Amino acid sequence: MVFLVGAVFFLAALLPTYVLSRVLLVFFWREGNGSATIAACHIGSYLFCVLVGAIGFAAGGAIDGGSKVGLAALSFMLPQMIWMVTDVYRFEKRTTAQAEAHSARGAPVRASIGAPVPLLPPPDHYRSRG
Fold first, then answer.
1. How many Å apart are CA 103 and CA 24, to the nearest integer?
2. Taking 80 as the threshold, does the pLDDT of residue 126 lie above it?
């Protein structure tokens, strides 16, 4: 029974971590940004979800606040890590493909990495190329 509750909470935690990380990426993404910006937005999303989750868990029974923060931190860690790893992997894969395409044409690689990246990662950042 406990496994089922954990699995349901994991699936439910995927939605707020995804939405909040996308909102932060919209506000903080600039042309020329890279994996560090993506990771920072995901860390900010994680911290906000932990804060709200700890408040929500404490509302159910405010016996001891420290364990509620720990429970929220553990509950949101895996869903947020999944989104962060996915986003960084796709970003690096896209940047490498762009660099290879530009180097095949003889263009300087360093100048071409930041130029084709749109202001915001969505929508083509998250589409699979293949």
1. 32
2. no
